[in-house]
Amino acid sequence: MAPEVHVYHENSRKNGWSLPPHPLQFVAWIVVLYFILIYFTTLVPALISEWQPAAYIINALGCAVHIISHFVAATINPADPAVLKKITDGPTGKFDRKKHPHVIENQYCYLCEVHVGPKSKHCSGCNKCIGGFDHHCKWLNNCVGSRNYRLVNLFCRDLK
């Protein structure tokens, strides 16, 4: 049986807003906005009138932090610094397992054609190497790596 030639997505994703979008990305934003709407129009007005100003202010600040961190985490390009320096908009090559058993060997990525950091991994969904790769988040439609890890922790702890 011959080793397979694996074809990744043709182009690399720049960030979570790159096409094609993931359906869970829309679900995440709709759910967040729905709960904010319900909370501020139904639950806070049902509180005792003395507690309402605090409930509006404190939770509005929390919602603002969530929305801003969610948006920025999806907008950041989490690529490895070497990949960010190498600007390529063209398609990547095919990965031939006959030549190399892994995409990254000895800290060199054969698809991105750059030397990457020791904690970098090549994401097949984004088709690029991600520095400090943690996981590919379908809710963000973006990878979580060292460049956006703290922002992701602000809004979605324990949702891996």
TrEMBL record:
Domain Palmitoyltransferase DHHC, first and last residues per copy: 104-151
PROSITE patterns xref list: DHHC
Highest taxon, organism lineage: Eukaryota
Annotated InterPro entries: Palmitoyltrfase_DHHC, PFA4/ZDH16/20/ERF2-like
Coiled coil regions in record: none
Any GO CC annotation of this UniProt entry: membrane
Transmembrane spans: 26-48, 55-76
Keyword Transmembrane helix belongs to the record: yes
This protein's name: Palmitoyltransferase
